[in-house]
From TrEMBL, chain A:
Keywords: Membrane, Transmembrane, Transmembrane helix. This is Serine/threonine protein kinase. Residues 366-376 have a biased composition (Acidic residues). It comes from Haloechinothrix alba. Coiled coil: none annotated. Residues 364-426 are annotated as: Disordered.
UniProtKB/TrEMBL annotation, chain B:
GO terms for molecular function: lipid-linked peptidoglycan transporter activity. Its main location: membrane. It is found in: Cell membrane. Keywords: Cell membrane, Cell shape, Membrane, Peptidoglycan synthesis, Transmembrane, Transmembrane helix. InterPro entries: Lipid_II_flippase_MurJ/MviN, MurJ. GO terms for biological process: lipid translocation; peptidoglycan biosynthetic process; regulation of cell shape. Pfam families: MurJ. The lineage of its organism: Bacteria, Bacillati, Actinomycetota, Actinomycetes, Pseudonocardiales. It is a multi-pass membrane protein. It comes from Haloechinothrix alba. CDD domains: MATE_MurJ_like. This is Putative peptidoglycan lipid II flippase. The keyword Transmembrane helix applies.
Length: 536, 577
């Protein structure tokens, strides 16, 4: 092909035509009438490219057998001519399982000489499946194979009676039509094809359907060639797949083999034997179906049209019921997974929040005009900042008990108040009398690694009634008198936010409890978690 | 011949209602009318290059449009940050898509395009039909646009939950006024694209969205240069910044639609008002009703999503939206380069009643999606946060922890990538089978799962974490959808060879586990002393390379046959460009 590509390659305008040598989907052949849609195979013996195409004039799909070759090659051209003549003869022939030949195009008669084609056989299009695809999923049940092939054998028999060669001997020339039988889709017999070749092809199809191997020479690359024994003879289908009935296996092998006695040489003989076996198989299948549930999943058939190599599960109604059940199950399962997933996010991110500065937790769009100017350029245009400064969490570097006027109050548990885990806590000792009877107060002293502008402290505590003061000092162990009160509040709910009177830059912060929670006679305060907020 | 690859949203822009695949026409049948002087001339075949080749250019065009479309959204984060302003813009900018989609999207794909192709067989080459179609559609669009603009505050009230005071509905409304006129031009673009595609003109419609993206990028540049900042309180429509962004983005769509006028006129089409409804449109009524139903149901899910997000911490909407774009980027690229080849074959098999072939193609496409998308999803899980910081922590995007949260949202939801792709595939199969009902019902179940889970987010999660929850829920709904799609296809078609798909999934998961482990290991080698964004980029590149390399390497070593067409296809694409 490359030869004439260079010869004709100089024609720039008609790039969409096949003249560039490549028949590509979307290209047109036959003087622009047929638009190629999809290539379905190549019969390399004749250079026949098998295409599904669209007839632009009659607006229907057609099957094209495009004979490609060099018009200067006399042998090839003559061979193509012969194929076209034979196809033209075949157009008289009508059978359900042979696509009708609609037209035969040759050079100068439907094909421009520049197209680089020797001829085209146009046949009606057949819906269905590639045999190659079908076999790709495994062999077919014997009874199905018989049923698929019987009408084609019948067609061959009728054609042979009229002296016509159909040229079925390439697995890509046929397809499984929607009624489940094998149909010749791409007619165009080889120039030297004989009646015997058609009969051999029938045997070969049977072999192919039963085993998935193609026993004749020069089959398509997509189908593996049939294995041969040591002596070079074809292995019988039964040797490859034990479940193939003996008669069927023998029929396939005897039809294909040229040598030896007892060969099946005519289509009539093939058809007779095939029909007999098909009947027997059908009977057996019927017995299996009506008897106990079959033990041969691959070979049961729901009905005549659908074949499968697996158990054709149940009927559609039952499948629907199952599908409903599955729907409910999936929904429930995902619901549970989602709950778990969300809880995990919550769990992990809480820890994140305790580790580093976090996103904007405070509300940002309050109607509060003051301060908005000072927010200034830093947040300009980001838009997320309302007039009120947004706050970020900041974690103290160190915590210790702060008990300048006494002892006790579990200083060893102090770190629990900032460990990010609300389940652990720091707790005061238990007091019989409310503060300040025994001492003026107790608390925690926290140290930040660097000075921060403290805005607010969140106290997570169950000890309602606890009065807390936020104080600061120059030293973590300062005397109470040298500390300065920044703000105060009472624990009224589990989470209490204590706003500072005004934001203050601090390094050392005291959480000073001046009144304990708990019942009379057993006063104590427990702090699960302290969270400090600085401006961002 | 050009299949529209499931854009979740209107044609040309894939930023519609996040997470909601929209139906689209599969392939425009080939076959063109012959020449005739008295009527609208048929497309000149000799002039256009071969379809196979033009399909290649179109793949590149849509790839570029996806990438530029993604780029401007990243740029928007750089100038707007991840906060209230961007949230408001995002919500407002989805409104036109939604209105368009409800009005025309599904109908266009399911009715108009097939009829356009058929009408070419009319004696006049489809001229009258096209004129009638344009007349009806343009009037409807114009009226709808006016109503939508007037109703902008109502839209805001539906989509934005301002009860927690964390969202800014005034700003959303201001943007909505400026952006809603897009509805009309979306419609015009989609119609013209359909008309041109039906006449085998694919180039300009594929490139037009790129023009739109470039206009928007320019707009963002201008926005950055305009002095001042958006005043949030009070919000003023006259604000220079708001005007720049709103008008600029709308002009992008106008340009996109205008791009298609010259090619249409060149094809010989002349517009004339022609009133009345074509009889043939009625045939498709039932199918369209279900498709519109699908859109409606998916909108419900989307409304709840935006409400929950806008009630959460500011920036949530932006993070969700961008995480979603990142999430579906790999699918977009894969869809363009790989699935285009399979989709038409699938619909042809369905049209031929060839269930067997259909199942084969579906199974094959599922397996291809698995081997390509699972490793990407696995790596996304690892590099999520780094990707968020690397891409978004620039300019205003660096404010706060929004970029990282965006990345986390991506990481958390990455597992949904394959289910998402499968849902899109199954959707195609259902439509190819002319079954518009089942997808709608599946969507209904997905939404029924999604809505309560979304409302669970604010209960279980802190405001700033809601976006993580929302993305998680979104991915989980795709898991539901993928399961249901498979189950109901099975109910209809019988054995789907799911076992084989499952086998490939298991193999791939094993390979990905290996990839993830090495990627995590590699990430530990990146020094932590670098500036945040540099570290993020290095981590991203190192982990992505190592993770993908090891995953695909392991798959190749396992000898998965599904990988072969991918590698050959990729190398062919590389060679072509």
């Amino acid at each position: 092909m490359n030869d004439w590509r260079s010869e004709h390659g100089g024609v720039p305008r008609s790039s969409i035509r096949a003249s560039r040598g490549a028949l590509a989907p979307g290209g047109v052949v036959g003087d622009g009438r047929y638009r190629l849609l999809a290539q379905l195979g190549v019969d390399e013996r004749a250079g026949a490219h098998l295409w599904r195409a669209r007839d632009g004039q009659l607006r229907r799909d057609v099957a094209l057998t495009v004979l490609v070759g060099d018009p200067a090659d006399v042998t090839a051209a003559r061979g193509a001519q012969r194929t076209l003549e034979r196809a033209a003869h075949a157009s008289q022939f009508g059978h359900r399982n042979v696509a009708r030949v609609l037209d035969v195009l040759s050079i100068g008669d439907g094909i421009a000489s520049t197209e680089g084609l020797l001829g085209i056989v146009v046949a009606e299009w057949t819906k269905g499946t590639d045999l190659v695809d079908m076999i790709g999923d495994g062999p077919v049940a014997p009874a199905t194979a018989c049923r698929m092939l019987e009408p084609l054998a019948e067609a061959v028999d009728r054609a042979h009676n009229q002296g016509l060669v159909l040229g079925i001997d390439h697995p890509q020339r046929v397809r499984r039509s929607p009624d489940g039988t094998v149909r010749l889709v791409f007619p165009g017999p080889l120039p030297n094809g004989t009646l015997r070749d058609d009969v051999k092809a029938l045997g070969a199809y049977l072999y192919l359907l039963l085993t998935g191997y193609w026993p004749l020479e020069q089959g398509p690359a997509a189908i593996p060639a049939a294995p041969t024994g040591k002596d070079g003879a074809l292995r019988h289908p039964q040797n490859l797949r034990p479940e193939v009935p003996k008669e069927l296996s023998a029929l396939a092998a005897r039809t294909i083999e040229d040598s030896g006695g007892g060969g099946v040489r005519t289509s009539a003989a093939f058809l007779r034997v095939l029909s007999q076996i098909a009947q027997d198989e059908e009977h057996k299948a019927y017995l299996r179906r009506t008897g106990a549930e079959t033990e041969q999943p691959g070979y049961t058939e729901a009905d005549g049209t659908v074949w499968t190599t697996r158990r054709p599960v149940t009927d559609a109604g039952q499948r629907k019921k199952l599908a409903f059940g599955a729907t409910v199950l999936v929904v429930a399962a995902v619901g549970i997974i989602a709950w778990i997933g969300l809880s995990l996010i919550s769990f992990f991110s809480d820890e994140d929040a305790a580790i580093g500065p976090d996103f904007n937790v405070a509300e940002t769009t309050q109607q509060d005009d003051e301060d908005s100017d000072e927010q200034g350029e830093g947040n300009a245009g980001s838009g997320q900042e309302g007039p009120e400064p947004s706050l970020a969490e900041v974690e103290p570097g160190h915590v210790q008990g702060y008990n300048p006027k006494g002892t006790g109050d579990h200083p060893d548990r102090a770190p629990n108040a900032i460990d990010g885990n609300p389940d652990t806590s720091w707790v005061t000792s238990q007091y019989k009398q409310q503060l300040p009877a025994l001492k003026p107060g107790t608390g925690l002293s926290l140290t930040f690694e660097e000075p921060i502008e403290l805005h607010k402290v969140d106290v997570l505590s169950e000890s309602t009634g606890t009065e807390i003061e936020i104080r600061t000092a120059q030293h973590p162990n300062s005397y109470l008198d040298s500390t300065e009160i920044l703000g105060s509040g009472q624990v009224t709910e589990r989470e209490t936010g204590i706003e500072l009177d005004e934001p203050t830059t601090v390094t050392y912060v005291m959480i000073w409890i001046t009144e304990l929670g708990g019942p009379d006679g057993a006063f104590e305060s427990e702090i699960n978690e302290l969270t400090f907020y600085t401006s961002e | 011949m050009l299949p529209r690859v499931a854009p979740p949203g209107p044609p040309g822009r894939d930023d519609a209602a996040a997470g909601h695949p929209s139906p689209g026409a599969d392939d425009v049948p080939a076959g063109a009318p012959e020449h005739d002087a008295d009527r609208w001339a048929a497309p000149d075949q000799a002039e256009s290059p071969s379809l196979a080749r033009s399909a290649g250019t179109i793949a590149i065009a849509s790839l570029i449009s996806r990438i530029t479309g993604f780029a401007w959204k990243v740029m928007l984060v750089w100038v707007l940050g991840i906060g209230v302003a961007n949230d408001s813009f995002n919500v407002a900018n989805t409104l036109p898509n939604i209105v368009y989609e409800l009005l025309l999207g599904g109908v266009l794909a399911s009715i108009v395009v097939p009829l356009l192709v058929r009408s070419q067989d009319d004696p006049d080459g489809g001229l009258a039909y096209t004129q009638r179609l344009l007349t009806v559609a343009l009037t409807t669009l114009a009226a709808a646009t006016v109503i939508a603009v007037v109703a902008a505050p109502a839209f805001t009230a539906i989509y934005v939950d301002s009860s927690t005071d964390r969202a800014n509905s005034e700003l959303t409304t201001a943007f909505a006024y400026l952006l809603l006129p897009q509805v009309f031009f979306y419609g015009v673009f989609a119609l013209l694209m359909a008309i041109l595609n039906a006449r085998n003109i694919f180039g300009p419609p594929a490139w037009a969205p790129v023009v739109n993206n470039l206009v928007i990028m320019t707009t963002i540049g201008v926005y950055a240069l305009v002095p001042g900042q958006i005043s949030l309180d009070p919000v003023s429509m006259g604000d220079a910044k708001i005007l720049t962004l709103g008008v600029g983005v709308t002009i992008g769509i106008v340009a996109q639609a205008a791009m298609l006028l010259p090619p249409l006129l060149r094809s010989g089409f002349r517009f004339r008002w022609r009133w009345g409804i074509d009889e043939r449109m009625k045939e498709f009524g039932a199918l369209a009703a279900w498709i519109v139903g699908y859109v409606l149901v998916s909108q419900l899910g989307y409304i709840v999503t935006t409400r929950v997000l806008t009630a959460g911490a500011p920036g949530g909407m932006t993070a969700y939206y961008n995480a979603w774009l990142l999430f579906q980027l790999p699918y977009g690229v894969l869809g363009v380069s790989l699935l285009t080849a399979i989709m038409p074959r699938m619909s042809r098999a369905a049209a031929d009643g060839d269930d067997h072939g259909l199942i084969g193609h579906l199974s094959y496409a599922s397996r291809i999606s698995t081997v390509t998308l699972l490793p990407i999803a696995a790596v996304m899980t690892v590099v999520g946060s780094s990707a968020g910081i690397a891409l978004y922590s620039i300019g205003q995007g660096a404010e706060g922890a929004g970029a990282e949260r965006l990345g986390q949202a991506l990481a958390i939801s990455a597992f949904g990538l394959l289910p998402y792709a499968l849902v899109m595939l199954q959707l195609r199969v259902f439509y190819a089978l002319k079954d518009a009902r089942t997808p709608t019902l599946i969507m209904l179940v997905m939404t029924a799962v999604k809505v309560p889970l979304l409302y669970l987010c604010p209960i279980l999660l802190a405001p700033h974490q809601i976006v993580l929850g929302a993305m998680l829920v979104n991915s989980l709904t795709f898991v539901v959808g993928a399961f249901l799609g498979q189950v109901w296809l099975w109910a209809r078609l019988g054995n789907l060879r799911s076992k084989r798909v499952l086998g490939v999934i298991i193999f791939t998961v094993a390979a990905c586990a290996l990839g993830v482990a090495t990627a995590v290991g590699a990430g530990m080698l990146v020094p932590g002393t670098l500036p945040e964004i540099v570290e993020a980029w290095i981590t991203l590149l190192v982990q992505a390379t190592v993770g993908l390399g090891v995953s695909f390497g392991a798959l190749a070593a396992l000898g998965l046959e599904e990988l072969k067409p991918v590698t050959s296809r990729v190398s062919r694409l590389v060679r072509r460009s």
